[in-house]
């Protein structure tokens, strides 16, 4: 993907996250954006890095941290007038945290678990807003696509089947987008894990199956075919779906 504009130096990102697996995953994929990533596992050390080792182009901030929580870090930075873009990470179902985080001045939030596609999309969107560059997408992904009775809008992250909107989770959307981008192509479970989940972790294959089944229940089984010995393939169904 193209880098953001004509910047001469890479973006600098501070990740404050105490779960090592999550911190590694974030660092790995933020680096690919590209960005220079520094990680802190403790809230107090994170705040210190935020204040003293900047300027930062982004802080990815976990809510539950040892030492000092994400909400306190966010509040402290904003009260000091720091306008650094902040992307908060929250556990599933923590709506209170979300509202509080946004009220305290976080720019966006993301619920764990999230896909690597979603992470990239959110961060690029944040930087576009910061750069004041609304409008065309800076990457080479189309903004929307359709296949028979199925329509997808990547910017709005919405899906319609005929004219009825289908409610998908972030992961389900990314999975369907990955398929619909390349109809007819057979994807192995490992490829899907790599592209959508951003991991090649052994034993995650059943996760793919589970999400495919949920997706089939939502958009109809006709779109996603099992390819024996390979994985899955997206096709426009014959006749009415
Ligand atoms: Ca945590």
Structure at a glance:
39% of the residues lie in helices and 22% in strands. With 241 residues, it is α/β, with parallel strands linked by helices. The model is unreliable at 1-6 and 133-138 (pLDDT under 50).
Structure in words:
- The protein is of the alpha/beta class.
- The protein has two domains: 125 residues, Response regulator (Rossmann fold, 3-Layer(aba) Sandwich), CATH 3.40.50; 91 residues, Arc Repressor Mutant, subunit A (Orthogonal Bundle).
- It is 39% helix and 22% strand.
- It contains eight helices and twelve strands.
- The protein has a five-stranded parallel β-sheet, with helices on both faces. Strands 6-7-8-9 form a four-stranded antiparallel β-sheet, covered by helices on one side. A three-stranded antiparallel β-sheet has the order 10-12-11.
- Helix 2 runs parallel beside helix 3 and helix 6 crosses helix 8.
- The longest helix is centred in the middle third of the chain and has 16 residues.
- The relative contact order is 0.10.
- The N terminus is likely disordered.
- The site of calcium ion (CA) has 5 residues, from loops.
